[in-house]
Design a protein that fits this description.
single chain, 3 helices
Length: 72
């Protein structure tokens, strides 16, 4: 069936279904169902502890400089 042969409601349904598919692909988690490695868990826990203790990470300006990124 071609679009020119569709009713308005059929076209709306097609658009809605297409939009739902695209949004699901866009917002889906590619790592869903995967396990986090133990070393990554430990790194995240250590990072969380540092943040709770008030230790800040690398300032954004330093990251920009290291990566050679200019920003406004």
């Amino acid at each position: 069936m071609q679009v020119k042969d569709m009713t308005v409601n059929e076209l709306k349904v097609l658009i809605r279904e297409t939009l739902e598919e695209v949004l699901e692909e866009f917002f889906s988690d590619p790592d869903e169902g995967e396990e986090v490695r133990e070393e990554v868990k430990q790194q995240l826990l250590e990072s969380k502890k540092r943040r709770q203790a008030g230790v800040r990470g690398i300032p954004a300006e330093e990251v920009y400089k290291k990566l050679g990124i200019t920003h406004s």
